[in-house]
Amino acid sequence: MTIIERLQELNIELPNPKAGGVYSPAVQSGKYIYVSGQLPVQSGKLLNPGKLGDNVSTEEGYAAARICAINALGAVNTLLGSLENLRVIKSVGYVSATTDYKEHPAVVNGASELLKDLFGDINGVGARVAFGVASLPAGSSVEFELLLEKI
Amino acid sequence: MTIIERLQELNIELPNPKAGGVYSPAVQSGKYIYVSGQLPVQSGKLLNPGKLGDNVSTEEGYAAARICAINALGAVNTLLGSLENLRVIKSVGYVSATTDYKEHPAVVNGASELLKDLFGDINGVGARVAFGVASLPAGSSVEFELLLEKI
Amino acid sequence: MTIIERLQELNIELPNPKAGGVYSPAVQSGKYIYVSGQLPVQSGKLLNPGKLGDNVSTEEGYAAARICAINALGAVNTLLGSLENLRVIKSVGYVSATTDYKEHPAVVNGASELLKDLFGDINGVGARVAFGVASLPAGSSVEFELLLEKI
Prior knowledge:
Chain A is of the alpha+beta class. In chain A, 33% of the residues lie in helices and 28% in strands.
């Protein structure tokens, strides 16, 4: 089963993210693919905007992070025309959070668990950073950045 | 026209940034040049300090981000002795912002549009992340990090 | 003297960090080693939790950043079985801070000075970013991310 077939099985449709500024959604350099920070935009609408620890629950943040990862994969698929033979090297999860919120990793797992499901226990799990930011573009609750390697 | 000549045309003088801690302004590893987070220091003074959404307007943040990019290029020029044959791979824009600020990409465009002007539509536009931080060194409103590739 | 011997001389015991989510503490890609964001966990306890500019002093943050760096080295040693022939390329210091805190670089120096001591003035000093975040996992005051190159 290809990654695209697995996505279809999960009823996930890959979007074609547009840049919201002067940047590319994803660029390739040698064997590396750098994906720009992705917001949880779904069908043109931001999923679960706001702040963790305030109006957005950890479960809602998890769902938002999953959409961010789908958008990251959409950007990669637009760039490469395929999602095969890729390895997750590093990701960063930016969580818009109150100053006393503590569950950032549980939010970012929404992106990481999808990547692990798709690319496997070895190639789907990379290094990661998760932390709480003061605010995100458009009032988003989560932003997700990804570095992949062609293998 | 070289990048240096284009900078002169724009009346931009390249600085020679000093590190404000135990780090190098820029390091080369293989074909990659990693540039440390740059503040909008101009002639020894921090431009437009404070916070977006509070005392710093989006236009003032844009101007600060542009100075950050100039300082990043100064660090690269000091390291390599040239700004030719470079490609923008990834940048990160750190915007000191209130918890409800939403225009981070418009601020970071101040850095990205200069890079695009200098390096062109292909090599001057890479992946990017922009987000709001709680605070920055010295009370800066913007910090900018850059990853370049020698081509 | 090997790095491990120098660590013993400094009475530093290398831990074997566990991931607090769906990620690897460190991964290798070609000659690069990407280390996940490390918290200042020491003997299972978070050192100096809280916020810089509030309940955590710059000196306490410095001590926390040093433990983060030790944990990063523990993750690398677990992955590679050695700490020899490594170069610091880039690090990121995430400082949980109030909105008016300004001394982030002095905090992150706690990690950077240890790396410089261990790997030397050339190979131990890379590019760096330091900034203030709204909150960190588990209420940590500091998080530290590291990119190394095998030389």
